[in-house]
Amino acid sequence: MKLILSRKGFDSSAGGVPSPIFPDGSMVSLPIPSRDPVTYSQIRWKDTNLGEIAAALTGRPLFRRIPAHLDPDLALDARPRLSGWRPAFGQTGAAQTHLANQGVGIGDLFLFFGWFREVEEDGAGGWRCRRGAPDIHALFGWLQVGELLRLGPDSAALRASRPEFAEHPHFNGRWDASNTVYVATERLVIDGQDLVVPGGGTFPRFHPGLQLTKPGENRGTWSLPSWFLPAGGPALSYHADPARWTRDGERCMVRTVGRGQEFVLYTAPHRQLTQWLLGAFCDMA
Q1: Which residues form the Nucleotide modification associated domain (predicted)?
Q2: Model pTM score
């Protein structure tokens, strides 16, 4: 199988601030601005919406009215849904070409990560980044591929036959011939083991098992299980340079590349992989 670490959400150029980890541990990835049909304020999160959260954290009220690129679209309750909806993720251009060249397909697993930081109330009904809190990369969601929809540049015909995805950004607008949507499985299954979670979704709360960044390091320096080490086998894509990797006790450390969206690892299903994934899902109750 392939494991894909997929970078998504606000970054230093799109949005300009980290996505929030709230005082109760809940977390939400803020999608980047776009020209898509759905605005930030139309995306529900708990008892508020992403327009209010993004406006507070950026200090820019315009986030209450501008469109958001809700992709990956993972949370059932983020929008009104039609019957048959499942989590979905679209990709195109060089990033989709990379996924295709890596052979990503049915049964492979996307783990979505982004830039996060703890936030606190600002005393005026909004939120601000907590002073002294570290900038980290953390996992926020997942999608196991159950279906590939190769939409190409004109998605209108398929949009009519799959109305449950009519709002998805990659079913709208103008895209190139590589335009592809990955739809989640019903359940997440690794090597025949049902992990007792849906095939796609978001993690409800932050916990240390979701943090990629090595504590005390800049957010692009990660601490991973030792089986990520490219010891005579395929390396995480874009990270083949051995100088990026260091063994670190029972784990390994990698200095990640600053650009790129989709990092693919070929790995046979094994006990350590399953245990690592179970650790990520440990707080799903």
Answers
A1: 2-265
A2: 0.96
